[in-house]
Amino acid sequence: MITVPQLRDMLPQSFAAEAARWGATAQWAEEAWRFVEGRMLAADPPPDDEAATAARDRLRLLSDNCRYARARCGLVETALTGLAEELTEARTSLRAALDEAAELGYEVTDDGGLRHPAPAAAVASSGIGHRATATGLAQRIAAALRRAEETDARYAPALAELTAAPGFPGAPAVPDGHPPRANRAWWDGLSPQERDALLTVRPARIGALDGLPATVRDRANRSVLELIDAESADSARWPAGIAVLRARLDRRGAGGPPPAFLLAFSTDGPGRAVIANGDPDTAARTAVVVPAPGAGLDTVAEELSHATDLWRHVQQLTPGERVSTVTWLGDPLAPAALRDFTAGLRAARRASGPGRITLIGQGHATGSLARQAWQVVGAPGEVPDESEETDANDDVPAGVARPAPAVKSVPAARAEARSLSSEILDVIAVRGTVSEPGPGVSLDRPRSPGGTDPERHRTYRMRHPWSLSGVPREALEAGLDRLRRELPERGWEIVEDGEQPNAHRSPRLLLAHPGTGYTVDATLAGGPGEEPLLTLSFVSAAFRTPEGESPRGQF
Fold this sequence. Notes:
Layout: H1 4-8, H2 12-40, H3 50-103, E1 107-108, E2 114-115, H4 121-126, H5 130-160, H6 180-188, H7 192-201, H8 203-207, H9 214-231, H10 239-250, E3 260-266, E4 272-277, E5 285-289, H11 300-317, E6 323-329, H12 335-347, E7 356-360, H13 369-377, E8 406-407, H14 410-428, E9 433-434, E10 440-443, E11 459-469, H15 473-486, E12 493-499, E13 507-513, E14 518-525, E15 533-539, E16 543-544
Parallel strand pairs: 5-6, 5-7, 8-16
Antiparallel strand pairs: 1-2, 3-4, 4-6, 9-11, 10-11, 11-15, 11-16, 12-13, 13-14, 14-15
């Protein structure tokens, strides 16, 4: 407990002086780090020289130590400066109350109590009496002491965490090219000191590592953002975009958007930022909004606004559930990068169950918010009709040409569906019992009763539901994993990788093939004591038969 004499006689300027010394040390460490990086490590080493290689390794360790010292000393400087400012304000408030108490003839005890042996003339003439005056002074003194104690309680552990053991050995090597689950296992195996060192000297590598917790990547990428903003001309390329990004990262509170997590940040190319509204590690539903071509830091305001609106729509549809919407800005998501990113979201989860991850293509340009929200809540491709007068193109803006269904005969489409199903079965690579029915024709629905558009009677889709059974569940799980790994390399894109909302939480994988327009929904059904069954449902894009042919009557 801080007493009145301690706060009254405290010299906050001593903390300010210490802060200045730590700041000078931080500056020295930064200059040393820049010298090692810019002068010593920039020199080309002799080829195949073991001594030179060993020397460079030592220089990298020295560089890491300088950068670590610079960051830690800077944090100590900031903490001590804040401590000095807050204690100065508390001491000023206390001294003002003590001066007033002395003027009115009150004695102040060490714990902040007041004694009033005889009311002073000033109190008597005030007309309010000494009791009310003493109560007011006691409250002001108590508030000053309480503020000093709260300040001490906040800064003491913060400063204690900044201690480091002598002989810092350098940051551990960061994995390169490992799968997300291996990255998570590596991170979990590090000591707190090793994690802190990596976040200090390797923030860009840690911030980009799939599989690490969102809070860790957020802390690392915020450090990258601070460094770029303070020390690089890159921030001048997108002054408005970075300002919007900063404002969103700092914005939170009751009634507003959820906390934002910066999952990736880079100034390469068009600039890259991956921002999550809400923590994806604890969300029951996560939507990843894949960028439209050209989306980058210069379009961050528009994309973030859309993601926040989508978060609100989904939250309204699923009250009580945790939701996260992730906006990807910058380089387009290649299938491999998309697979690693979504696998990283699953590996980093802290909540029970894998959660539901939905991918929405082309950012805010794809469909209305209502449809996108239903896509996150329901099954993609199974969005309820908003009216009887809708079709697949109803979300195309007015004035834009609506894509017509490809012209394809029913036999050609049937052969294509069989070929794709056979390809999927080969990838699964499990010898089991395959259900018999082949691809079938599904007629498109006219836009209005009676069918006012005669061309709609030539429009159809191919559907091919089949299943695989008669083998252990482990074999079907392995087959589903092979689909997850190999199909993106064959032109398929993972649209969703999660669970069905049933009692058994059946694993479900939804994929799309942009080249053919087909989607496949793979679900591993069956609970404890039931025969496992891998069901697959193929659905094509809309086709139109050649003129003079009709899909009606086709099976």
